[in-house]
Write a structure and sequence with these properties.
Layout: H1 12-23, E1 38-44, E2 47-52, E3 56-59, E4 65-68, E5 75-81, E6 85-88, E7 103-106, H2 108-130
Antiparallel strand pairs: 1-2, 1-5, 2-3, 3-4, 6-7
Organism: Chryseobacterium aquaticum subsp. greenlandense
Protein name: HNH domain-containing protein
Length: 137
């Protein structure tokens, strides 16, 4: 889903995002994959993993090195270009006094994992609104 920058501070793209990416050395702060790197995602020995174009395999949860193999050795692999995003750790959309400690540079997968419960809550609220079931609290 595209980002609605009207909900972000005016200096988000010019100051905040670049500062967080620099702090993270332009890598995902969870799995350590580099921004714009082309990788394969899949499973390696029943562990969610990613493999870079040099054949090195890393744990998708921690970024730990798992081994080296020829490309295509991952099960159910999908080729992905990594685009780092900046995640709000507390999901407070109203707070524009953004502190760096509340932000993390994450790849697409790690950001989705972080936001999984938040997305489910938003989905429930949307469905309830469509059904006319507004929350009383």
């Amino acid at each position: 889903m595209p980002c609605d920058y009207s909900k972000y501070p005016p200096n988000w793209k010019t100051e905040i995002r670049p500062r967080i990416l620099e702090r993270a050395n332009n890598c995902c702060e969870q799995c350590k994959v580099s921004n714009y790197e082309l990788i394969e995602r899949g499973k390696f020995n029943n562990v969610f993993a990613y493999q870079n174009m040099n054949g090195k395999i890393f744990c998708a949860e921690t970024g730990d090195y798992l081994g080296e193999n020829y490309l295509g050795s991952l099960k159910d692999a999908k080729l992905t270009k990594v685009i780092l995003t900046i995640a709000h750790l507390d999901h407070d959309k109203e707070n524009w006094e953004v502190k760096d400690e509340r932000l993390k540079a994450l790849c697409q997968r790690c950001h989705l994992v972080l936001d999984k419960n938040h997305h489910a809550e938003n989905r429930r609220e949307t469905l309830n609104k469509k059904k006319g079931l507004e929350s009383l609290f």
